[in-house]
Amino acid sequence: MASLNLRSVTLNFPVYGVAARQFRSQIIKPLKLGRSSADHNRLLVRALNSVTMSASAGDRIALIGGNGAGKSTLLKLMAGIYEPTSGVIERRGTIRTLLDMSSGMEEDTSGRDNIVIRARYMGASTKQAKALVDEIVDFAELGEFIDLPIRTYSAGMRIRLAFSIATSFNADVMLIDEVLGAGDAAFIDKATARMTNIIKNAGLVVLATHALSLSDAIAQRGIFMKDGRIAFDGPYQEAVAAYMASTHAAA
To answer: HSE-up of 214 (CA within 13 Å, CB side)?
Structure first.
């Protein structure tokens, strides 16, 4: 059974040396985004502050908020990429992510071999991974580039390949962060249809996006985040309204 449970989760990022002093004087004091430790050469920047939430199978959740609100950080925490400074996270079910998809590619290895490497990393056997290659190559529309090293790819080509690999697997829990920014209109339409199908088949979905048209289509619950905290958690349209009201108040 798919589920995510976070209890009083806080995440701090340490900043050291000269960068810490500059960051403190230029950003932290006026914006109150973090706190200083006793050591003046180190600063703890609080990315998430006492986040408590739970989600279970059937939930379709949109994370809403401005840049720097903590949406992407929260997704990475849910995925296990970050571990909390304090608090507890409980995860149940197979987790798949569409986060920073092109990171982790083997730069000097061909796109074809990267498909097998990443599919193996995602839990497929070598035989299963190789069986997926032709379909992934076709969907990514990379043609002969698939046999060239990744370092020769454009940013859009990398994202198309990574997206095609990541969406070849169903999951109990799907964590998605603003993934459809690359490619022509035809590819974006095709990718949107594929992602919609993945979302339909997943047990639990958490999505962060600035494209409310996407979250409008799939979300029934919204979490409005502000300054690393949950400002509202409830019905999706009410979360959007809370975010819009906050945006207008700050203008």
So the answer is: 27
